[in-house]
Amino acid sequence: MSLLTRRSLLSLLPASLGSLLLSNRLIAAEAEAETHGLSSFGELAMPPDFKYFPFVNPDAPKGGKLVLQLSAGAGNQSFESFDTFNIYVLKGDGAAGMDMTFDTLMSGSGDEPDSLYGLVARAVRVSADKLTYRFLLRPEARFHDGSKLTAKDVAFSLNIMKEKGHPSFRTLLTDMVGAVAEADDVATITLAPSRSRDLHLAIAGMPIFSAAYWQGKDFQATTLEAPLGSGAYKLSGFEQGRFVEFERKADYWAKDLPVNVGTNNFERIRYEYFRERQVAFEAFKSGAITYHEEFTSRIWATGYDFPALKDGRVKKEVLPNGAPAAIQGWYFNTRRDKFKDIRIRQALGLLFDFEWTNKNIMFSSAKRTSSFFEGTPMQAKGPPRPEELALLEPLRGQLADGVFGEPMVPPVSDGSGTDRALLRKADELLRAAGCVRQGGMLKLPNGQPFEIEFLDATGALQPHTQPYQQNLGRLGIKATTRLVDSAQYQALLKKFDFDMMSYAHNGSLTPGEDLKILFGSGVVSAEGGLNFAGISDPAVDSLLNLIARAKSRAELNIAARALDRVLRAGYYWVPMWNRTDLWVACWDEYSRPDRAPKFGTGAPGTWWFDAAKAKLHGLG
Predict the structure, then answer these.
(1) Which of 141, 233, 301, 429 is surrounded by the most beta carbons within 10 Å?
(2) Which residues of the chain register pLDDT less than 70?
(3) Which among 108, 93, 95, 89 is positioned nearest to 69, based on CA atoms?
(4) What pLDDT was estimated at residue 620?
């Protein structure tokens, strides 16, 4: 029996059928639109022939060293330690900086809230129904070992991330039907008709792994062997739990692409690990860390009086940040019976005295957070507008009455730390929920003592948490903090084994499927998920779907405001505080472009080592 090739098989077809197949292919090709970039709503600021982003210095020199701490994580990354270099799975504590070692199909712009431009993909062809994306790959794309990066690697990466990746990534890829290599330079991705609006952006931003490297290896296991990547940096050294260092690839295949010009300027980047931020600050003062983001108001106000700052070797700056504020709060684990009653959650929220805390702990530097979309057009204000009511009315039977009035806002205390009016109101709510005080102890409706354990892996928030716990104690609630090491903390979070915990997620001007990771019922029991509050509400799910499928920014804003009202009326958290700027200190050996991105600070990604400054200050 002879083996027929695809070409020889086509030659045996009737001429009319062959013509029909050709015609169908031509029609399909005509229906596809080729583009150099992708966005949520089709808006691209940069033309196809752009040379570099306007917020970079295209002539920035390469060299020098940047030493810092991890300040924002993804996947399984931990801020206190690491035991694996695979940050894209559930198991282990992932090392900082590993994302720098992997390329993606496309790369974002800090001047646009949701646009991506070609990196590994030079362009993408999109079907008319937006269910098929053909990414056209650059033939020069290479892994660090010199092997060619092909569509096979893209397909492998997306499929394995959907099957075995961290729950956050698996959730994002739910409606990806599949990824295949149509040719070495064409990766074809098909999406389900139920796809979310931004699924194509999530796909284009996923890391690309080497299929050959992972053959025969367990993708979900922890590993201290750095997986083969293709990015601008490569792991050059580490000491487990203490530091991880990367070296710039001088022969990086994509260094001259428009999305990379003016970036990846440091010869070496090193992340240091410290269990305590005060110890890290001392390391910064000594020069062991060269770039430092400050999060502690007390230190920012009183701690920068050391010699290197006084003589100009260290610079301290407040950088305006165009990005939405981080959304931070203490979340109630509503999986636990003690937090099931909304009146109990409402009462507990009344007992955090932000005004006292801000003045006495944070030097009046913060603003109170009230919304899950703080400071954006998606924040609910005033009574629902008609367009919001159109979304909320069909859900009325599932919603609290408060959703249809003014949105819930945290109380403003008298600043005494023990506002009697708020204590009295909280006590009334607790009694209405069936709680009973016996002696100095408050008991839950089931007769058990009311005890709350705050889970944390660092003592940084203790000055803020302890006054709150004291107020809880005034109503007979025993409130304590459980401080554990990083590994135990991550293990407890993965299993949702806590009463309350604090969490901050970055704000976004274009939220979508990512909100399901935080608030959707589909992940409420998913180990390693981020729905810490345990929200399982059909009304919330309905609004999350509307947000994920909004066809315009106006639709998105309306649906998000409706969701904001519902979440706030659910009292799932005790909102904390926010700042809209970035507190940064660094040794004066860096320079930066004339302007920052519109939606960020550019620090330190667009900065570079300035040899003249370093020499002037005797730093290098």
Answers:
(1) 233
(2) 1-31, 620
(3) 95
(4) 63
The pLDDT, as a whole number, for residue 13 is 33
Confirm if 52 and 263 have CB atoms less than 8 A apart. Answer: no
Write down the pLDDT at residue 29: 44
Taking only the tens place, the pLDDT of each residue in 37-73 is 999 998 999 999 999 999 999 999 999 999 999 887 7
H or E element that contains 248: strand 243-248
How far apart CA 356 and CA 361 sit, in angstroms, is: 8
Q: How far is CA 569 from CA 23, 197, 302, 331, in A?
A: 56, 27, 38, 14
DSSP state of 102: -
Q: Token pair 């790959």 is at which residue?
A: 137
Nearest CA to 93 out of 101, 102, 105, 84 is that of: 84
Alpha-carbon gap, residue 344 to 398, rounded angstroms: 19
C-alpha atoms less than 13 angstroms from C-alpha of 239 in its C-beta half-sphere: 5
Where are the chain's structural domains?
31-50+57-214, 330-578
| Torsion, CA 160, CA 165, CA 168, CA 171, rounded to 10 | 40
Q: Tell me if domain 31-50+57-214 and domain 330-578 are identical in fold.
A: no
Q: Comparing C-alpha atoms, which of 140, 109, 108 is closest to residue 122?
A: 140
pLDDT at residue 7, as a whole number: 29
Alpha-carbon dihedral sign for residues 54, 55, 59, 62: negative
404, exposed or middle or buried, with CB in 10 Å at 0-12, 13-18, 19+? Answer: middle
Residue-level length of the chain:
620
CB atoms within 10 A of CB 151: 23
Task: Outline where DSSP puts E strands in 72-131.
Answer: 106-108, 116-118, 121-126
Q: Which amino acid is at 512?
A: G
Fold of 330-578: Dipeptide-binding Protein; domain 3 (3.10.105)
CATH number (3.30.450.20, 3.40.630.10, 3.40.190.10, 3.65.10.10) of 31-50+57-214 reads 3.40.190.10
CA–CA separation, 1 vs 614, rounded Å? Answer: 74
